[in-house]
Hints:
Blueprint: H1 2-8, H2 16-19, H3 25-34, E1 38-41, H4 46-57, E2 61-66, H5 72-86, E3 93-98, E4 102-106
Parallel strand pairs: 1-2, 2-3
Antiparallel strand pairs: 3-4
Helix pairs in contact: 3-4
Amino acid sequence: MLIRALRETGHDVLSVLEHSPAASDTAVLALAAQDNRILLTEDNDFGGLIFANAAKAGVTSVVLLRIANERQALKVERLLHSVSVQGEHLLGRYTVIDETRIRSRRLPTR
């Protein structure tokens, strides 16, 4: 649903589930860095991995969605709103989007 919504609004999306469904978290980080993409994840475990390895892996931007799967419509709405409002301000940052707020901090650089 998220991938389709992003694509329908004109965003270039590479889905790991479509591209490399068995990829490790480290491989996902490397792919995002290689293609200079914003990494969109719902995996809370990525936080520690990203801050431990982001600079080394070259990951430039991460968005973590923290909205329950039962609230898909809200998840899509919050993501599209955040991308629309934040736009390029998502670049170089670790951004967490939840049901009521957006938090963001700069990612470590190489």
